[in-house]
Amino acid sequence: MMAASTTQRWRGELSHDEPMARHTSWRAGGAARRFYKPADLDDLCAFLHDLDPAEPLLWVGLGSNLLVRDGGFPGTAIFTFGALTALDWMDDNTLRVEAGVACARVARETTRRGLTGVEFLAGIPGTMGGALAMNAGAFGGETWPRVAAVETVDRHGRLQRREAAEFQVGYRSVTGVPGEWFVAACLRLEPGDAAAAQRRIRELLDRRGATQPTQQYSCGSVFRNPPGDFAARLIEAAGLKGARLGGAQVSEKHANFIVNTGNASAADIESLLLRVQSEVARVYGVCLETEVRIVGEARADTGRQEHE
């Protein structure tokens, strides 16, 4: 909720009871109690300044690693895609990009200038905010080796610039200052062969299309690869490729994807995810960790306990 004594200074779009199935790549899940799309970064800061500090926040880009339970999210979702869209060249080799810019756009823009190092971003179906938050990677590349500095915002709408060295970065994990969220990054790139880089992007996209269910609703990879192994191999070896629960299915094309076949509820997806975890742990003794964020409340009529 907004602080009652403030005068509205924000210019973005505010809605209530917004179905999050419209904003997640699984096309499933409940509604956010409030949903805000800022006009720009300054507007986001004004909105956060006026927001009750106790209000739960959910940051959403393309929603490609997010599942909102069927009972919805009891707070405010902030939508950055199409909002935090600035992409500016600081010098010949350094790009400042805001959190709502699609990763694929960053890959395209850099290769057009004959710069290399982030071609792998073409294979990540999300925004730079999500890529920064989880050190997203694809086809052997990762986000943070190219990060020189980031900009963050806190609950009061205050901006900070922080150097990359201030963060602890690992495989699909980034730890920084609690209570701050990424709103932009400066990426350091290298001169290279533009034509070769563009060919590399086409090859990555062709490979992605050939090996992943890109024509179905999914969140991308559901589980992190365990050390020295692959989640997809373990899931397939456990006999779960193609397994179904309601409208959710372990992809027959890539076992580390769970797809919505058309009418899956968030409960279907989460229950199938938990079944995969349980069976792989039973058969191989490996506890698969999720890449996807699961938030919100289970719908009361599901008869299921909420799992965090």
Order of strands side by side in the largest beta sheet?
Answer: 6-7-15-11-12
Let me know the average pLDDT: 93
Strand content: 25-35%
Shape: globular
Helix-strand category: alpha+beta
> What is the CATH class of the largest domain?
Alpha Beta
- Reported by name, the CATH topology of the largest domain is Uridine Diphospho-n-acetylenolpyruvylglucosamine Reductase, domain 3
Number of helices: 6
Poorly predicted segments: 303-308
What is the domain tally? 3
Helix coverage percent of residues? 10-25%
Mind sketching the topology for me?
Layout: E1 13-19, E2 31-37, H1 41-50, E3 57-60, E4 66-68, E5 73-79, E6 87-91, E7 94-98, H2 103-112, E8 115-116, H3 128-134, E9 137-138, E10 141-142, E11 147-154, E12 159-163, E13 168-170, E14 173-175, E15 180-188, E16 190-191, H4 194-211, H5 231-237, E17 244-245, E18 248-250, E19 258-260, H6 266-284, E20 293-295
Parallel strand pairs: 2-5, 3-5, 4-20
Antiparallel strand pairs: 1-2, 6-7, 7-15, 8-16, 9-10, 11-12, 11-15, 13-14, 17-18, 18-19
Helix pairs in contact: 2-4
Overview in brief:
This protein has 308 residues and is α+β, with helices and mostly antiparallel strands.
Task: Describe the 3D structure.
This protein has helices spanning 41-50, 103-112, 128-134, 194-211, 231-237, 266-284; strands spanning 13-19, 31-37, 57-60, 66-68, 73-79, 87-91, 94-98, 115-116, 137-138, 141-142, 147-154, 159-163, 168-170, 173-175, 180-188, 190-191, 244-245, 248-250, 258-260, 293-295. The protein has 308 residues and is an alpha+beta fold. The protein folds into three domains: 13-79, Uridine Diphospho-n-acetylenolpyruvylglucosamine Reductase, domain 2; 87-210, Uridine Diphospho-n-acetylenolpyruvylglucosamine Reductase, domain 3; 231-302, UDP-N-acetylenolpyruvoylglucosamine reductase, C-terminal domain (Uridine Diphospho-n-acetylenolpyruvylglucosamine Reductase, domain 1, Alpha-Beta Complex), CATH 3.90.78.10. A five-stranded antiparallel beta sheet has the order 6-7-15-11-12, with helices on both faces. A four-stranded mixed beta sheet has the order 1-2-5-3, with no helix packed on it. A hairpin with a 4-residue loop joins β11 (147-154) and β12 (159-163). α2 packs antiparallel against α4 (194-211). The two termini are 24 Å apart.
